[in-house]
Amino acid sequence: MSSSVVVEADRPQFGVRGLSKRYPGTRALADLDLNLVAGEVHGIAGQNGAGKSTFVRIMSGVETPDTGSIVIDGQEVRFDSPQDAQRAQIYTVHQELSLMAPLSVAENIFMGDMPLHRWGSVDWGTVRREATESLRELGIDIDVRRPVSSLPIGHRQLVEIAKAVRRDARVLLLDEPTATLPAQEAHRLFTLIEALKQRGIAIVYISHHFDEMYQICDRISILRDGLKVAEYPAEASEHNAILRAMLGSKGESTLRLNSAAGVQRMGEGPASDEVVLSVKGLRNEVLQDVSLSLRRGEVLGVSGLLGNGQSELSSALFGATESQSLEFVINGKERHPRHPADAIGLGVGLLPEERKTQGLVLPMSVTANVTMSALAQFTSSGFLQRSAERRTANDMRTSLAIKTSSTQQPVANLSGGNQQKVALAKWLVSGVQILIFAEPTRGVDVGAKAEIYGLIGEFVRGGGSVIVVTSEITEALMCDRVLVMRRGALVGEVARDDIDERGENAVMEYFA
């Protein structure tokens, strides 16, 4: 844990009381009480969908709560816009930074507050001088004349923080600040956070990296399904206690168990000995010499907390992002896919994490989305056979139980679970033998989750092979094997036979 807080922890300066927020069909936050103290780093942990992002949006003024209030120095306040939050000296550094990339560092730091000469023009000398001083006070040495676009992501983040500090921030919310940072840049950030504490700034630190939270936080609150379920002093907190608070024993994210079989699984195994995909030494800016193999009929889980390289791995295996490897063999052919077309030609399909923007064309019909990856099958003499397209789409609608009034309905009008089924149907029609599912059930309800797991099982029973890339522990434990990722590297493997009835041994390694 970091050094002692500047202000006594029993004197909250900021906080929320009874904060609740619902979206259609989802409870995002429920009666949340949370105190922040000047000069303290308060960590917030929780699985995906626990309510962390909703809390940040409300504190930032992006969202308004249904009930409850924000409290500053004992007074209830209401934010109707981000400008309201900033006037209250509450600033947020999001994962997607809000800097203006084409402008200089100095211009970003003074954005909306440019010093002017008496005749109305910008006093650029003062802008650059004071911007430099603001950075140096925080131990940051950056040429303020450089455009933000030329800076590495870590330096951009420091500029965003300096911008908030210059505006006398009293509360700073850091949302997954190290998700894309290399170790050296993360260490620089931690040093800066310690300096901000000494200035008396209250910091909210949201992260999936437990080692970071133990290192820099003073307290850790755990959210689960919109509820605050526990709070621990960071120096006295036990790893297993936090894990159990995060996971719980009930709720949508909890794996359904039966006493005889233990953890359920997607496939029926055992998989054959035939290896259909093998990669050695896969690397890029995020991945660190990843080696793995996938057998025919296997459901291979790749898991890790968000931001540890799972998304980059699925993209690299599909040829959607640049990478290098020592060996890359797909279905007996040694070829490193440099483009998604290469992977598709080798029999590999990807259901991406962002299905709405990367896996589907929302304004187009169900039919058009289902057949888009196999148009050659529906083309004769250069003409698209619309009737054949419709027959295939209707067959997929029936076999996958896609709920839609018509296959001519735009995919945008379907629920998240049915959109995911359409994305799967696209690959089934194309005839791929290997499917990579990135966060396959994110944003879908419990019933749709069960259906998607069933469809994965049907695919492998038909001779297919699946890689499930997921940050959900319970989902990973339904696979035949689980590979654990941390900071872009594979750090462990949990064999199916080693998963105990409740999966706790695998959970421990997952978060290690």
Can you put this structure into words, describing what you see?
The protein has 512 residues and is an alpha/beta fold. The chain has three domains: 14-89 and 170-247, 3-Layer(aba) Sandwich (Rossmann fold); 99-154, no CATH class; 257-511, P-loop containing nucleotide triphosphate hydrolases (Rossmann fold, 3-Layer(aba) Sandwich), CATH 3.40.50.300. It has 17 helices and 24 strands. The strands form six sheets. It has a six-stranded mixed β-sheet with strand order 6-7-8-3-9-10, sandwiched between helices. β11 and β12 form a beta hairpin. It is globular and about 75 Å long.
Topology record:
Elements: E1 14-23, E2 26-36, E3 41-45, H1 52-59, E4 67-72, E5 75-77, H2 82-87, E6 90-93, H3 105-109, H4 124-137, H5 153-166, E7 171-175, H6 183-198, E8 202-206, H7 210-216, E9 219-224, E10 227-233, H8 239-247, E11 257-258, E12 262-263, E13 275-282, E14 290-295, E15 299-303, H9 310-317, E16 327-330, E17 333-334, H10 340-345, E18 348-351, H11 355-359, H12 366-371, E19 379-380, E20 383-384, H13 386-399, H14 416-430, E21 434-438, H15 446-461, E22 465-470, H16 473-476, E23 481-486, E24 489-495, H17 504-511
Parallel strand pairs: 3-8, 3-9, 6-7, 7-8, 15-22, 15-23, 18-21, 21-22
Antiparallel strand pairs: 1-2, 1-4, 4-5, 9-10, 11-12, 13-14, 13-16, 16-17, 19-20, 23-24
Helix pairs in contact: 5-6
